[in-house]
């Protein structure tokens, strides 16, 4: 499971931390979920984010993969709820549209756009980490837009 924490108050947004939650391949499903919960609780305690954004599940041909993703999402949402965080969900198409300008962008296009939009020295090439950064950026952009609309509506 990838994770990313952004400081959206900067322009461009700054990646504060990102990576993969360390999970032993030989661990049982329950032990993997426990490791994810522990890592997310520690990240939340260390960075004190305002929200947690996750990818909304969509139809997946591989039911086994879909179940594993659903379980990890559930753990992430539980960690967020325990910490009193807002939880936002975005479909892969919403994330791709927000980051790359096209809901059908491929992973490499999203990775290149992340490097450009966030002024990164190099693209993030690890798929799960890039997905997490993209989801965080999509949420930051959605929040900024909502704030701008609220100001304009006054």
Please characterize this protein's 3D structure.
The chain is of the alpha+beta class. The protein has helices spanning about 30-45, 65-80, 90-100, 105-115, 125-150, and strands at about 1-5, 15-20, 50-55, 85-90. It has one domain (about 1-150): Nucleotidyltransferase, domain 5 (2-Layer Sandwich), CATH 3.30.420.10. It has 5 helices and 4 strands; from the N terminus they run ββαβαβααα. A two-stranded antiparallel sheet has the order 1-2. Strands 3-4 form a two-stranded parallel sheet. α1 packs parallel to α2 (about 65-80) and α3 (about 90-100) packs across α5. The mean pLDDT is about 95.
For this entry, give a set of tags.
154 residues, alpha+beta, two-stranded antiparallel ribbon, two-stranded parallel ribbon, 5 helices, 4 strands, 55% helix, globular
Oligomer: single chain
Helix content range: 55-70%
Q: Helix and strand succession?
A: EEHEHEHHH
Total strands: the figure is 4
The domain count comes to 1
Overall CATH class:
Alpha Beta
Strand order of the largest sheet: 1-2
What's the main sheet like?
2 strands, antiparallel
The total of helices stands at: 5
Given helix and strand content, the structural type is alpha+beta
Low-pLDDT sequence parts: none
* CATH fold annotation: Nucleotidyltransferase, domain 5
According to CATH, the homologous superfamily is: Ribonuclease H-like superfamily/Ribonuclease H
Specify Rg, calculated over alpha carbons.
Answer: 16 Å
How far apart the termini lie comes to 41 Å
Tell me, what's the shape? globular
- In CATH, the architecture is 2-Layer Sandwich
Q: Please report which band the strand proportion falls in: under 5%, 5-15%, 15-25%, 25-35%, 35-45% or over 45%.
A: 5-15%
Q: Average pLDDT, to the nearest integer?
A: 93
């Amino acid at each position: 499971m990838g994770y990313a924490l952004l400081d959206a108050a900067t322009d461009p947004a700054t990646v504060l931390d990102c990576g993969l939650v360390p999970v032993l391949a030989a661990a049982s499903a329950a032990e993997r979920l426990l490791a994810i919960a522990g890592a997310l609780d520690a990240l939340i305690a260390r960075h004190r984010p305002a929200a947690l954004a996750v990818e909304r599940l969509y139809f997946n041909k591989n039911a086994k993969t879909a179940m594993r993703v659903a379980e990890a999402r559930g753990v992430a949402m539980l960690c967020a709820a325990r910490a009193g965080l807002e939880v936002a969900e975005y479909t892969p198409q919403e994330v791709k549209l927000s980051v790359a300008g096209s809901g059908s962008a491929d992973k490499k296009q999203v990775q290149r756009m992340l490097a450009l939009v966030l002024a990164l020295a190099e693209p993030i090439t690890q798929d799960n980490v890039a997905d997490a950064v993209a989801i965080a950026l999509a949420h930051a952009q959605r929040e900024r837009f909502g704030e701008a609309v609220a100001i304009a509506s006054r």
